[in-house]
Fold this sequence. Notes:
Number of domains: 1
Shape: globular
Number of strands: 6
Order of helices and strands: EEEHHEEE
Amino acid sequence: MTRTSRIWRLYAGDELLGDLVVDGGDFPWLAARFEPLPAYRPFRPLFDEDVRLLDGAVEDVEAQVASDRAMRAAAIALADPDGFRVPEFLLHIRGEQAWWRWNDEPFDDD
Length: 110
C-alpha cells in the first residue's frame, strides 16, 4: 500500500473529522474527495479562512501565519492509509475538494 492510494483521515486530537478519499494529484500534491463527519463542523471556519487566504489577490503573510497557528492550536492531524500521522503537512479543503502535501519529517522551525 502506498500513501498515494486509498483513504487518508483528518483528526483534531483523537477526534475523527472526516475521510479524504484520494482521487488524483500532481506530485507532490494529492487530491481527494473530502467526506466530513459532524465533528468537522466547528473546524470548518479554519479551513474556509485558509482557502480565502489562498485565493486572495494580495498575499497577507500575517494572516497566513495566524491561520497556520490556529490549525496547530486545534491539533489538526492527518493520518495516511496505514494510520500513521504524518508529522508535517499542508492541507487545503474547499467544500468537498481537498488537496495536500506532506513530509515524513518535522519541519525545522529555524
